[in-house]
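pasting for ref. prot 1 ->
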Amino acid sequence: MNMRDATRPSHEGRKESKRAPRVLLSPFTNTTNPYIDLQKQLLRDIGYDVRPLSLRYLLRGGFVDLFRRSTVLMLHWIELRAFIDKGRGVVPRLRGVPVVLLYCALMALGRARAVCFVHDHAVHNARGVVRVLSVALMSLVRGLADMRIVHDPHYAEHFRARYLPHPLYWDVPERAVSGVKSTQEGTHAPSFAILGTVEPYKGIAQVLAAWPAGHALLIAGRGQAAYVETLHAILRERDLSACVTLEARFLSDAEFNARIDAADVLILPHVADSMLVSGAFFEAIGRVPVVIGRAIPFMRWAAEQFDNVLLFEHEEALPEVVRFVTENWPRFSAAQAVAARRQQAIDMFGWETCRHRYRECFDALAQHPRTPGAVHIRNRLALAARRAEREDCDEANTRCIREEHDAAIGPSGGQPLDRNS
C-alpha cells in the first residue's frame, strides 16, 4: 500500500497561523511493511509535520530543525544501517557505522528531543561478536534518547521506556478491513499459516521438525535461499509436502492480506531473543480466529488479554496445541466470539486508541527539559553508558534465573487445556 507523504502539516486543534511541531523521522520509507507509513499517518493525524531525518533534508535547510525545542527526532531500527545480512550471516557494514554515529551526534548535540522506538533485542540473525556489537550499538542509541518507546508493556521497565500500543494494520483510515471473517463455523478443519519473512529468527525450522502430519500449513514470505533450502530438506525428510505449502517469495500487500484473510490460525514462532513484538500479530489479532505463539513475554501478555491467543514453550508442545485448536474449532470460529475479539482488539490497539495515547505521550515529551551545551553532551553520554551497563546486568541476571529454573523443573510445553479448565 502506498500512502501519500504530503508535507502539508495537519492543524487539528491548532490555529492556522501557528507552525505545526515537526517530527524528523528515520527511516522515512520502508518497503518491507507499512509500519513506517502508519507512523507518519498517525503523527500527521495528531498535528505533526513529518519530514525525513536524512542528510539531504538537513543540507537543504532542515539542519535548523535540530536546534528547535519543538522538533522531535524519531528513530526506528537505525542500528540496521550498521549491519548487512549476506545470506550466510550478519556482518558489520563499514559504510553504515559512521551513519549511525552521525545520528548519535545529532541526538547529543541538538536541542530537538530524541525518541527511540525499541523494536528488537539485537539485530536479527546476528551471532557471536556481531550480535554483541549490535546490542552495544542499540544500547548507545537508547541511552542518548530523551524517551524510549516499546510496544510490549513487559519491557517498559527493563528499557526504562514508555509503552505505546502498536497500531492495528487493519484499522487504519482508508485501509480499514470491514466486517468479520466468515469462518463457516465448525464445518471444516482449520488451516494454519506462518506469514512474513522466512528467516532463522522466525524459528520455522523448529516448527516443521515438530509439525503434526495431516494439518494444513502455509508458509509464505520472502526468504533467505539457504534457510529456504533447509526448510525444504525438513519437508522431504518428514514427508510433509502433502500438508505443508512453502511459498518463499515476496508478497505484495494485496497477496499478504489475501493470505491473512484465508488463514484460520496464524502461528508466530519467533525465537525469544529476537524482536519484542511481531508485526504479524497486529495484522492477525481481531481478524484471524486463533493466534498461536511462542511464549515470549509479549505473547504471554497477549494471552492474558485474549482467549484466542495460545502459547507453546517448546516445539514439542506444538502438536498438542494444534490438536486442541482443531478439536475446539467450532468454539473458536463462532461468529459472536470472533466479533467480540475484533472489538477488543480495536479497543486496545485501534486507530482512535493510538491517536489518544500518542498525543498524550508527545504532549508529555514537549514538557521534557533539555540541558544545552557541553554539560548536556557529557551528561547524556554518561547516562547512556550507565543505562547500557544496567541493561547488560539485567540481561545476565535474567539468563541466570532462566537457566536455574530450567535445571530445576526441566523443559515444559504450553498447556492450552489449563486455560479453559
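and prot 2 ->
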Amino acid sequence: MQTSNIPPRKAKKKRRIWPWVLMVLVFISAALAGAYYASNSLLEKPVEKKQSEELITAKDKATIMIMGVDERDDDVGRSDTLMIASIDPKTNQASLLSVPRDTRVKIKGHGFDKVNAAYAYGKEKLSQDTVENLLGVNIDHYIIINTKSFKKIIDAIGGIDIDVPKRMHYEDPWDDDGGLIIDFQPGMQHMDGAKAVTYVRYRDEEGDLGRIRRQQDFMRACMDKIVSPAIIPKLPSVIKEVMDSIQTDLTFRQLLEFAGTLKQSKENGLKTDMVPGRPLYIDGISYWIPNLNKLRMTVADTLGVSLSGKYKTKMEADIREYENSIPASASEVPASDTSIGKARPSDSSKNRRREEKADKNKRSEDKNIDREERTRNSEERGNREETSRSDRRQSAPSTDNSGDSAVPTPSTGVSKTR
C-alpha cells in the first residue's frame, strides 16, 4: 500500500489550489499525449517475471489479472472476484473474461481446489500461476482491490448509476461489521461505494454465475462514469484513491494507458465472457468444471495467437489429467443447491452473433453494390457504343436508290465486328 507524501498543512496557512490544478493539467496532458503518441508501454513484458515456454504469450496485447479480495482482520481472505482483461492498445479493443470463484483448478502444492483458495494459499503470485495454468497463457500484470478500497474508489468517482434488473434483498446479521444488508428496488439506481460493494456481492438463486453477469454490467457502468466529462473535476481525488487503494505491478504510465484504452474500447464495445463449463458435485461440494478445450481455444482466438503442435499436445495432456482427476462418485448438483447457478449464453456470445450477422449483412450489401456498379458500368458502356454507332451512321454517305439493298458502310461493319 502506498502512502501519501503530502506534508500536513499548517493551521494558519492559506489553502493553495494551484497544486491540484497543476495535477489535473498534468493528468489531462498525459492522457491526451497517450491517446495520440502512445508508445504502448502496456505491451512491455515484465522483466522480473519469467515467461513459461509451455504457455502462449500475447505479442501485441496485454493481459491483466484483476482480483477483488475479501480480506478480514482475522482471515487472509480469498479472491471473491476474478477477471482477466485483454487489452490491445494499438486497436483500442478490450475484452474481459470472468472466472467463477468455484472453478475447480489444480493449485501447485495443494492439489485440486476452488480457484479462490489460491489467494489464501499463496497470495497474488500463486493466484496468477494458477490462472495461467488454467487458461494456458502467460499473464503480464495484476491488479488487486480489496473491499474497503473498492468503496473508496467508487466514492472518489462520485458513485455509479446502474439499472438494477430485479428486486434484491438479503440480510446476514453475522457478516461484516454489524451485519450485511442488501436492499435494492428494480430500476435505475445511484450507488455510492457502500451500496456498490453489496450490489456486486449479491448472490441469489442465480448463484455465482448470476453475480458474474451483474459484475460485468457493473464494469460497463464504471467505464461509462470514468470516461464521462463529469469525472474531470474529481481527478485529483480519484488518482489519490486509486494509487493508495490498489496493489499492482503496473506503472503509473501503464495505468494511464490502461485507462485510455478502456475509454477507446468503450466506443468499440467491451467484450465480456465467462469460463465455459458445467456445475458438478464432488464429495458434497459444488464446483464449476471448466471446458478446458473450449476455454483455451477461445483465449487463443481472443489474443490472436495460433496454437503450435507442441502446445496442442500439452493441452491434450492437461485435459486428460483434469478429466482423470474427477472421481467416479461425482454427480450433478442438486436442484436445491443454487450456489453456482445455471449457465446461459453470455453477453459476448450474443455480441458475437450480432457482429457476425452484421458482417454477413454488410458483405451481402457490398456484393449488391458491386453487382449494381458492374451493371451500371455495363449499361453506360453499351449506351456509349450505341451513341458512337449512331453518330457514324449519320456521318456516312446516303443514296436515294431505295430499290437497292442496304449495304453496310465500312464504319458500321467494323462496329458490328467489334
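Residues 18-342 form a domain with the Aminopeptidase fold (CATH 3.40.630.190).
The chain has a mean pLDDT of 75.
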